[in-house]
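Demo today. Your pick:
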Amino acid sequence: MKLPFPDWILVTPIKVYTEIDGEDGVEEKLIFDDKCNFSEKSRTTLNEQRQVVELTGKAIFKGDIYPGQLIKGYIDLGGIKKTIYKSRKPRNPDGSIFSTELDLM
């Protein structure tokens, strides 16, 4: 069973870049250039070293924007560059990817 995604919330134009380690250093690759649901709600969390990290926003996309891969890199939001802190891919009851969520620093 697939849950319907509310397409009407996708209003913010965004570009998502992933960073791939290669022989010549880090290569940047554009993986998404469309609209998302963006929230600038700030919050704090602890990282693996128990240090406080301030998150400055969250971007939600319909479906899986980078199938089968982990997303690490940054987003470009109208000329503002934000680093991706964490990504999540919640699933539908049938096992398909419902959305991609990126926490931003």
About this structure: The beta strands are 12-22, 25-39, 43-46, 52-55, 57-62, 73-77, 80-88, 99-104. DSSP finds no helices and eight strands in the chain. The CA atoms of residues 17 and 91 lie 23 Å apart.
